[in-house]
Amino acid sequence: MIDAATPLIPLAVVVPLLWAVLTAVRPQVRAAWLVVPGLLAWCTTAALLWSHVRAQGVTQYALGGWAEPLGIGLRADGLAATLTLVTAVIASACALHRLLSPPAEFADHAARWFWPLFFLLGAALDGVWLAADLFNMYVGLELLGLSAVGLVTVAGTTIALAAALRYLLAALLGSLAYLLGVALLYADYGTLALASLANGFTASTTTLVALALITAGLCLKTALFPLHGWLPPAHGAALPPVSALLSALVVKASFVMLLRIWLGPGVSLLVPAVAQGFGVLGAGAIAWGGWQALRHAELKMLVAHSTVAQLGYLFVAVPLLVDASAAARASAWDGVMLQVVAHALAKSAMFLASGALIAAVASYRVDDLAGVSRHMPLALFAFGLSAVSLMGLPPSGGFSAKWMLLQAALASGQWQWVFVLLGGGLLTAGYVFRVFRASFLQGAEDRFTPTPLGWDVVALALAASAILLGVMAVAPLEVLRIGAPPSVGLLLNGAP
Amino acid sequence: MSAASLPAWVLASSLLPAVLIFLLPESRRRTRTTLNLAAAGLKLVLVAAMSWGVVRNAPHEVRFTMWPGAEFILRGDALACLFAGLSALLWLFTTIYAIGYLEGAPNRSRFFGFFSLCVASTMGIALAGNLLTFLLFYELLTLSTYPLVVHRGTEKALAAGRTYLRYTITGGAALLLGIAVLYSFAGDVEFKETGSLRAVAESQWPLLRVAFGLMIAGLGVKAALVPLHGWLPQAMVAPAPVSALLHAVAVVKAGAFGIVRVVYDVYGIEFARELALLVPLTIAASVTIVWGSLRATQQTDLKRRLAFSTVSQVSYIALGVSLFGPLGTIGGLVHLLHQGIMKVTLFYCAGNYAETLGVHDIRELDGAGRRMPLTSAAFTIGAVGMIGVPPLAGFVSKWYLGLGALEAGHPWVLAVLIASSVLNAAYFLPIVHRLWFRNASAPWPDERSFGRFETSLWFLIPTLATAALTVGAGLFAGMPFSPLQWAMLITRREYLP
Amino acid sequence: MSPALWYALVGALLVAVAFAAFAAHTHVVRRLLAFNVMGTGSFLILVGLAQHERGPDPVPQALVLTGIVVAVASTALALVVFRRWFAATGRVALPEDDTP
Amino acid sequence: MTLLFDVILGLGLLLAAGGALWSRSLFRAVVLFVVFGLLVALAWVRLEAPDVALAEAAIGAGLTGALLFDAVGHLRRTRRDPPDGAA
Question: Stretch B358-369: mean pLDDT, rounded?
């Protein structure tokens, strides 16, 4: 269904791209007059696209009028539309945080590249969400990696540079593996469009090698345990709004690609053993990330390791998406979708709140937060709300997601994942309460640096939406079901 | 305000003040006090209005779908009104007490913000119309009480907070698992007056038992069932109004109330008996009653003794619930109210002694009755009530529990009740004796003067009011709308289909 | 064996050799060289295998064009970051790889 | 004849790549990388992809090579002949 009346799809990529160019042409470090209209245009486009998909179902667009395989095919299903909207919202929040930052934050000369890279990152993300074929995904992913690395370097510290280099090498390796896999798939099937591959892969050697390469590359980019080593330093060393974007959205891009490939054409090869393997790695991520977060002395490293753990939940859902009854699969789909969105909102809020807390006490260490509950109640409250969602306590998006995954696991009798999900929640509680414990400690002298109130408000808004998502999940889930892979979509009866 | 949405307004009457109080600057003392008292008063009116709906047999209800297959339900049924009424009433008094207690202390915005959030959670627990909504507020209560437990910010308080979290978060996980198991084959489990699980196929009964065990374990942590009670005595480092609140109303009662809901409104008392779930609960409650009393006799710190007394007394509720038959039910439900009123009185008194005289240890209380006659009178009423001396509130509870035990065919429970009463007397009467019949041997550790009265009026008024209620609830048990009558109303609906 | 298949095979060998070099070296510039050779190898596989199956094909060629541009952009960025890292620390490898 | 050319070109590619990846001097490695790029351009011609060949020669060999030379030169200027062996 090619709907020529929907230029909204390319606009979702073009608008941030346009502002990337505009801000590159006028590289001022404080450019609210230029940035804010861009954010408004971006959010409007994304919101319109979301409501369009909600009303009309899956929408496709062939850029430049060429049909596939040569043209740049874009496709907006519920997942793509929702993530585009979430991207625009979170990016706007991060941009506001940046705009509200005091001028001291802009000391590094790389800071002038913040806005171009920021908008490029947004365009790349939207490109990945909306891509309809494996090669566009590659381009989007590669641009995403490059702009993300560039943004990490904006922090300007030596630690950030090392983290950026490490991140870059991991990203390059990951996308090369992916590209190699795509090359092999093209040899086998002569097309890269997901729609034309919909008949499913055959179990030829080329295909199996290709899938292995693609999976390895994307898992490296998603920082799935044990390939997560690059993530905590990069997310820990970047500026708060950059960390927020990276943890909330960038790692999800490769996960969404994995999901689209494995649940689309790859579903016939997603045998129980493979699916359970993903689950085991996810459980490893939950345990290892949680354990590291428990023992790290620095606040941002704690939050970054928490991302490693939270990504584990996404992979724990994989066995429930295939190796289960139809009802359980549907529940698992809802759960994993909600987890993607809820974690994005909660983790970006948590990074922004952590940034404010760190700036207030002028120290990265958790132990130095003593007494901060008195001085920065709002930032701590935002941290707390996002922690509620990450712990999977009700009412929150994180809870609802966990609940659906639990239901899927119970319905399919896979008790091992029940315990992983519950244990992960306890571990999360363990490390987030380290922060509260420190913040309630009395007796430290007041040596706090004032931080902009706007920072707290932005973080609070994101955290509150993660909470609200838990009690008002009906409409988002309806949209997220639109165009779900047929293998999980049988019961979801979304629009065509 | 439409009448149907009344439960939502009851909730909002503490949620909105919480938000406003958080936003208030620390220095706006008068505004905060007004807001607190106005909200507490308004809530009482709203709960009363909601109860009227129950009397007319048309309970108010609010519901919407959170996500497919999961509804958010608030319903003001008879049981909900019982707990909500108790909470609203005691909250009014505790708020008054807390305002006096925190006079001049730091972090009052934070304290009262979380305090209001606690009320909101407790109201949510009372009004929850299905297990999922219940769980939602149950966890919210955990989170909103943590800042109150660690409020003082000392190492000791933080350690207590950590213990508290370990217990309650793990308990929450057990409850979540139990509820999730139940939902996985029974769907959305609503609270119905005769239970909602009767239709479950017999092949699923083992899972029903597993879910019951998990839920009771999860609820038992907050209800301080032995051996899950370890957090409670430690949590005594919290400020006095928090102890009064945690121990008399919010946390322990939330657990006990949850047990009531699970047995009566999820499984249904008759179905629970068919599944052979009641006797283990009776045994667990009996063990807790005796163990808590025994431990209480060993404590010399007044608040710790009261804490172990709470461990023991709260299990009377679980005991009453587990005794099949209307009389046991009446005893358990009425004790939910009576224990709250009596225990809150005792904690107020403990706070009065600590704040006025600096006394924390029982051995320092000699002669306090002469220095603080009103407080000591209130303490005596609470203690004698706890022991179960007629005509006070505690007697009514124990009378019905005893009859219920006979009715249910467990005469050995009578022995538990008698043993507990003896132990109650053993740990309360020496205190009463010290108050009235001994002379002060040393100056008070840290005496403060509050002018014309023996202590601050902010302290005295709530203490005397709840002491008066303890007498009233016993004397006027036969009057309409007394706790006893309300418990009988619920019981009638529970046992008559 | 068709020329296309031969070049695909060469591409596979290139990827293998370059991957070994990527793993063995710690010098960032050398790792970038390895990355570029690996990329070229995958392009050869992409075009070679496809044309072996179906004859001359514009699609993979267009993809390779894109890929070349992406690769040079990645290399450029990596070198910029590397030079700042080198200027700040005087090191040519990452801290965890550095064994002086 | 053409087959022979393909074989020689392929082996040349592998040799150049090996040199670019494993030679002891970093400068020589970059030189060999540019040579490798030009040889790949020839391979693209043989694969009937003239536009890719042009792009490879201009961008893959030329631009990338220039960037690498610049970086290596910078390294040399800053640090007298770094021990850039394969370690």
Answer: 86
